[in-house]
Design goal:
Elements (H helix, E strand, L loop, with lengths): L1 H11 L7 E6 L4 E6 L5 H5 L4 H16 L4 E5 L1
Parallel strand pairs: 2-3
Antiparallel strand pairs: 1-2
Length: 75
């Protein structure tokens, strides 16, 4: 899932070299943290959070195939 989030984020931003994705596992599932440059934050979130919601939806659909819970946080 980490690679999926990274590919999507790098395609959206102006500074793809500053995209950092961290993956942490806990008892409930996996938490993915997406870090982007401050100037790219609006591109990743989108108007009214539409892009962020779409990223979360794609990751949720991909993780359901593996029967795993994944949460995406944009930091």
């Amino acid at each position: 899932m980490k690679e999926l989030v990274e590919v999507i984020a790098k395609a959206l931003v102006d500074h793809p070299d500053e995209v950092v994705v961290n993956e942490k596992s806990d008892g409930k599932g996996t938490k993915i943290e997406l870090h982007v440059a401050p100037s790219d934050m609006g591109k990743v979130i989108g108007k009214q959070g539409r892009i962020a919601k779409a990223i979360r939806t794609v990751v949720k659909a991909a993780s359901s195939k593996e029967d795993e819970y994944v949460d995406v946080d944009i930091i």
